[in-house]
Amino acid sequence: MAASLWRSVFGGSTSAAEEEGGVAFWSNPERAGWLTKQGEYIKTWRRRWFVLKQGKLFWFKDSHVTRASAPRGVIPVASCLTVKGAEDVLNRPFAFEISTRAETMYFIADTEKEKEEWINSIGRSIVQHSRSLADAEVVDYESTKRTAKPPDGDQI
């Protein structure tokens, strides 16, 4: 699913900046570090460098990320429903999961502290991006409500 999300979001763009929708993943990430990720089709575990920035979780083969780097994949945080510990599911220490409507992806951090920091960072990003959608809906609802019936009872 992550690969299909990647293809649907980034298709055939040519430059890294164009492919990432203007996200400069190579500088000042909200969080970056090594995680072990389970493959989408072949369920092997691979160590990847992850970068969380502007509502997108990118992963790379190595930690030397530059403007020319090509991400191996991306998860749009707005599509995520939950992020939580998954040691009991995988029977592995420092494991956590990210769930979307379509799939659940599994990751393993190097330490308990790193696992908690990733869960907190991704969780904050999910809330931040879902809040901006919810706020826009409330503003639209409130402005429609005010237009339909002014508070002083006058006709529009």
Low-confidence stretches: 3-19, 136-148
How can the largest sheet be summarized?
7 strands, antiparallel
Order of helices and strands: HHEEEEEHEEH
What is the percent of helical residues? 25-40%
User: Per the principal axes of the C-alpha atoms, what is the gross shape?
Assistant: globular
Broad structural category: alpha+beta
Strand order of the largest sheet: 4-3-2-1-7-6-5
**Mean pLDDT, as a whole number?**
80
- Based on CA atoms alone, the radius of gyration comes out at 19 Å
How far apart are the termini? 49 Å
Secondary structure tally, helices: 4
Strand content: 25-35%
Summarize the structure in words.
By secondary structure, the protein is α+β, with helices and mostly antiparallel strands. Helix content is 35%, strand content 28%. It has four helices and seven strands, in the order ααβββββαββα. It has helices spanning 2-10, 16-19, 87-90, 112-148, and strands at 31-38, 45-53, 56-60, 73-76, 80-85, 95-100, 104-108. Strands 4-3-2-1-7-6-5 form a seven-stranded antiparallel sheet. A hairpin with a 6-residue loop joins strand 1 and strand 2. The model is unreliable at 3-19 and 136-148 (pLDDT under 50).
